Amino acid sequence: MPSLDITGFQTEGFRLLCEFVTYENFPGTPAEAMERLHRIIITTQGGQMSRSRVMFKMVESMLDHEPTEDQVREVYVLGWAMELLQFVIITSDDIVDQDHWRRGRWAWHCQPGVGLGAVFDSFVGAFLALAFLKKHLGTHLAYILMVESINQELLHVQPMQSWGHMDTAENLKASHAITNEMAVYYQSQNDYLDLYGTKAQNGKEGSDIQGNKCSWLIVEALKNCNSSQREILKANYGRDDQECAEKVKVIFEELDMSEAFQSYKKNTVTEIERLSQLMSQVA
User: Fold this and answer.
1) 1-166 domain in CATH 3.90.950.20?
2) pLDDT at 166
3) Global pTM?
4) Rounded distance, CA 275 to CA 278, Å?
């Protein structure tokens, strides 16, 4: 019997996605368009798949037995639908930010033969996700709830809460608290890694300083800097100039923002663990 693990998700789960993108499911599709669809689903690979990993843990905590073969398949399908939706987000994000590198390779819009056609491909990714979901989970009792949740809050954890038919007012309130905390932490960590992470970790060169992003680092720096440091940040942050970016980095070093993030991380993880305990009490 298969189990919920990332290896099975990347092999058996991805096989389900590949088998879905065929002429049988997309009759009349030109060969070039079919090739494009295959390139899109291949591009969904290579990420950290953190959403799917979290989902596996949530399912395991919701079930009082080992998942059945059908349940594992359903979770894998939902997971790959989420990865397709992640493709939508990062593709759009890379175009807007003019980033050229993603997940250790050229960003989708920079790959041969793609260009600004990536804008349309992002829509295709969303349609693929919903079509893939309908193909395998169209008769599931929670199918409509899943689709509505995806439409309302793209890539939010709530579709998974409906999957087990265990949603109540109490555990939805508890899950809302923990997912909000996790979402803020995830974005803050992304902001931190944009400057202090490696290219291997980020899949691209950091650009938040030059891009004038409202990141965790600049927000916290402005809370703690003195008047002189504030003037330097105001004069140099958001400038598409490497020398200006270096001046900002110097201020971040003076404020020891790396250590500040580690302290924030420790406190946040403790809070998430506390909320997780509350979640287990109301599940």
Assistant:
1) no
2) 57
3) 0.56
4) 5
